[in-house]
């Protein structure tokens, strides 16, 4: 499958387009193989006994792009691909994280993520014909070192959250947040600075 872009034809695979951050169609066989791999690993992770830390760590290391030393994720855990998610050292993720990681998700070191959070990189065209034709995209999410996301936080496509920032429970982050602030609400707004 290719799409005409101007006078030149784009010969990249849909997976290559996705990884470059360009629009793609998810029904591509290469992406489908990635999804099958993820589904198997995700099922194995979520079915493990809660105290089987070593096996869980080995599976997360296989699934994710990066799984830093001392990082911990409590299942259940859900993602689209896995290899697009990178988690830094000593970060802790509580139950029920959803990483819609068609775009890269970078989680820094010493990050705390509360239960039921969603990190959402996918985008879809506003043009109904392109959307009906199956085109989609993704924009990366970056979470800086020592960030704390309260329970149920939703981070939308293309957002960067600066280091040391705290995002209150249930907040929806639609724009970048600077370092060293507390932000709450829908949409999340900075309510104070941290010294």
The order of strands across the largest sheet is: 5-8-11-16-19-21-22
CATH class: Mainly Beta
The count of domains is 1
In the CATH scheme, what's the topology name?
UDP N-Acetylglucosamine Acyltransferase, domain 1
In percent, how much strand structure appears in the residues?
A: 25-35%
What ranges have pLDDT less than 50 throughout 5 or more consecutive residues? none
Shape: globular
Judged by helices, strands and strand pairing, the structural class is: alpha/beta
Explain what the structure shows:
It is built from 4 helices and 22 strands. With 195 residues, the chain is α/β, with parallel strands linked by helices. It has a single domain, classed as UDP N-Acetylglucosamine Acyltransferase, domain 1. The strands form 5 sheets. The chain has a 7-stranded mixed sheet with strand order 5-8-11-16-19-21-22, with no helix packed on it. The chain has a 5-stranded parallel sheet with strand order 4-7-10-15-18, with helices on one face. Strands 6-9-12-17-20 form a 5-stranded parallel sheet. A hairpin with a 4-residue loop joins strand 21 (181-184) and strand 22. Helix 2 runs antiparallel to helix 3 (53-63). The longest helix is centred in the first third of the chain and has 19 residues, at 29-47.
């Amino acid at each position: 499958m290719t799409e005409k872009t101007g006078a030149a034809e784009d010969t990249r695979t849909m997976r290559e387009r996705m990884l470059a951050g360009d629009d793609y169609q998810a029904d591509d066989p290469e992406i489908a193989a990635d999804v099958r791999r993820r589904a198997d690993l995700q099922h194995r992770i979520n079915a493990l006994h809660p105290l089987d830390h070593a096996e869980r760590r080995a599976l997360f290391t296989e699934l994710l792009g990066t799984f830093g030393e001392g990082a911990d994720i409590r299942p259940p855990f859900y993602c689209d691909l896995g290899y697009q998610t990178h988690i830094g050292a000593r970060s802790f993720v509580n139950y029920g994280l959803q990483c819609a990681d068609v775009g890269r998700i970078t989680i820094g070191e010493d990050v705390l993520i509360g239960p039921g959070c969603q990190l959402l990189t996918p985008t879809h065209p506003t043009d109904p014909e392109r959307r009906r034709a199956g085109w989609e995209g993704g924009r990366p999410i970056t979470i800086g070192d020592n960030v704390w996301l309260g329970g149920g936080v939703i981070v939308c496509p293309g957002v960067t959250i600066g280091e040391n920032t705290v995002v209150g429970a249930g907040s929806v982050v639609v724009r970048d947040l600077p370092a060293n602030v507390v932000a709450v609400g829908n949409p999340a707004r900075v309510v104070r600075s941290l010294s």
